Amino acid sequence: MRPPILDPIAWRSVWLLALFDLPVETPNQRRDYARFRKALLEDGFVMMQYSVYMRHCASPENAEVHRKRMAGQVPPAGEVRFLTITDAQFSRIVVVTGKKRKAPETAPAQLEFF
How far apart are CA 79 and CA 22, in angstroms? Predict the structure, then answer.
């Protein structure tokens, strides 16, 4: 018996991106930020860059489940955008970096008097 052929339309893995801007001016806002970030990590998201987290999902329907779950975790003073893109679109991301950051300068030695 031949193995079943997967329908390419049925197998449509996607990436779910969470792009957020959360205030961190007060202790409560910092706590809300930390809770939201922790919820993302616990749900399988990984940091792509600051305030941008991503998660691979087996299908658009699966991505919708995770989007709804995380939407319920958004702090009252926050704003989060969720973007779903196909695996093919994600593979075309181009990363451009600038000059490498310099190592921080070392603090000068303490002045000594004889």
Answer: 6
pTM for this entry: 0.75
Cβ partners under 8 Å of residue 48, min gap 6: 17, 54
Domains of the chain, earliest start first = 14-90 (3.30.70.240)
- CA 89 and chain centroid, separation: 17
Grouping H, G, I as helix, E, B as strand and the rest as coil, residue 74 is: coil
Question: Rounded to whole angstroms, how far apart are CA atoms 54 and 45?
Answer: 5
The percentage of residues in the chain with a pLDDT greater than 90, rounded to a whole number, is 63
Burial of 45 (0-12, 13-18, 19+ CB in 10 A): buried
